[in-house]
Amino acid sequence: MVDGYLRRVFVVLGFIALVAAATAGVWRYGYVQALDQLARQGRSDLALASDRLTGQLQRYRELAVLVADHPQVGAVLTGEDVATAEALLLEIADKTAAEDIRLTDATGVVLARAHPELAEFDMAPLVRRAAQGALGWGNGTTTDGGRVFAYAAPVFDGQSQVKGAVVVTADLATIELDWVGSNPAVFFTNAGEQVFITNRSETVFWTRPEDAPGLKPADGPALPFDSYRVGRHEVWQMGWGPYLPQKALHLVRLLPVIGMKGEALVDVAPARRLATLQAAALAALCLAFGAMLFLATERRRTLTQANAQLEARVAERTAALLDTNTQLRREAIEREEAQTALKRAQEDLMRAGKLSALGQMSAGLSHELNQPLMAIQTFAENAVAFLERDTPARASDNLSRISDMARRMGRIIKNLRAFSRQESEPAVRVDLIEVLNSAVELTLPHLRHGGITLDFTPPDAPVWVSGGEVRLGQVFVNLISNAVDAMAGQDTRVLRIDIAGETVTVADTGPGIVMPAQMFDPFYSTKEVGASEGMGLGLSISYSIIQSFGGKISGHNGPEGAEFVVELNGWADEAAA
Fold first, then answer.
1. Is 448 a member of any domain?
2. What mean pLDDT is reported for the chain?
3. Which of 183, 219, 416, 423 has the smallest number of CB atoms closer than 10 Å to its CB?
4. Residue 347: is its pLDDT beyond 60?
5. What pLDDT sits at residue 107?
6. What is the share, in percent, of the chain residues with pLDDT greater than 70?
């Protein structure tokens, strides 16, 4: 008996060790796969930040070239009218947000300057480059510790000889203001491996240790740091403060156009959480299966021992006990059948639960990301058209909108994940008018494609309500999109949006609501199969979002079509304060 007990203990311990090894393998595989996805997203964010910085600096290069061709610049080089030239340079600097514009002769002597009161920086190498007839550029620090990026354009006379140079400087601290604190952490190092531009101001002027990864402060002791590799990814483990991740994926992008190197630190915490969830799910399934198998084995062993004892007693007892023995065997068979049926039912329930969760996740993502993806496609096509028409400003505007839509998609995915876990973020102060304007802008191509006349006049003053900007936007995008789809094929297609305090009414001229009692049920839809991409989740999700904010949403048939009323709670003055 003792040997049998020890054998069972060893089997259980071996099974636990096997599950632990499999869980560790799944965690490692899931972590590497999640890091691959994070790396792709991080490279896209780093490329976007690099292109934005390069574009902002390139306009100062073009400014230097244009100013160098100005007639007033040539007049100063011949000794005429310096005061008028300085007024011109000051006006240009004020209009273009340049920190300073200098006019020098070929030897670097400053002849005219927009802001003489500003600190100096070493521009001699740039002027020497311009004196050779080429465009000089570089970064540096001023005498008061400021960071600048400068371009030096040569000024030619009528015989194509270099007579001087126009030096345009840009304040990098001003450029950083637009993206300080954004995610992920991005910094740009110069040729000396020094952090010169960053969206984390605490790392300015940090330098790279010699022949080693990481960064160290310009003054003071080095902060805690370690690095290691996971597959083909480099991970930094840092203790650099609350605004930088503890563990981050390190990504690099070379920027030869401005002589810098862009680097990004992407937090790996989401990847670790995802890998942990996958490993925990596998461990739970294996342990549950092992527990059921162990219980079944123990029951079978107990029944076998009981049968052996009964058979031994049958040989000693009379024939009267034979019937009792037969009855016990029947009961044993019935128990085994019940065990098998119970196990089969449990497996079916587990499979159905997994399929239901997977279906809900896939349906929610496809529904909520469809509108931003359509908007990104439209803005991308518009950007291509504007580039072909040589209107880069309009194309830049469309690319900025694409960036906004990408960030919006990230927030939508975050909210969908929270919604699937029955979680919600706390309500904040939101401008209802701004949310409605964003929703209308997002669905404007859909409205135009459907030939819809929009009747919407937002008030000039903001209306502050309690809610969340992204989730409220989802609600109104769903209502507008549903109205556009409902009015397809109607002779009169008018969408009306009315605002009365914190109450918004969305009315259309469609056929109305067929079954009002079921319109907020999940997967309920009146659209024909193949006629739309809707899955009947929009109104259900909208209902849950408005309920989470303490508001109400209702729908009914009006005189012209369907009408949906969204009632939100106003943001109290003391809460705003």
1. yes
2. 83
3. 219
4. no
5. 87
6. 88
| CB 189 within 8 Å of CB 263 | yes
CATH classification of the domain holding 147: 3.30.450.20
Q: Is 33 buried (19+), middle (13-18) or exposed (0-12) by CB count in 10 A?
A: middle
**Where does a domain end: 154, 175, 196?**
175
Per DSSP, 178 falls in state T
**What is the distance between the alpha carbons of residues 34 and 27, in angstroms, rounded to a whole number?**
10
Q: Distance of alpha carbon 299 from its chain centroid, rounded?
A: 52
- Pairing, β 494-500 against β 453-456: parallel
What DSSP character marks residue 135?
A: -
Distances (CA, A) of 122 to 58, 279, 341, 490, 526: 20, 57, 85, 70, 71
Q: What is the CATH number of the domain that holds 500?
A: 3.30.565.10
CB neighbour class for 154 (10 Å; exposed up to 12, middle 13-18, buried from 19): buried
Tokens (6 digits) for 201: 């101001």
Residues facing 112 on adjacent strands: 103
Q: Given this model, what pLDDT does residue 525 score?
A: 67
CA distances 349 to 138, 295, 343, 417, 441, Å, are 66, 19, 10, 23, 45
β-pairing, 233-238 vs 247-255, is antiparallel
Cβ-based burial of 390 (10 A; exposed 0-12, middle 13-18, buried ≥19): exposed
In a domain, 332, yes or no: no
Amino acid identity of 99?
E
**Count of structural domains, the chain:** 2
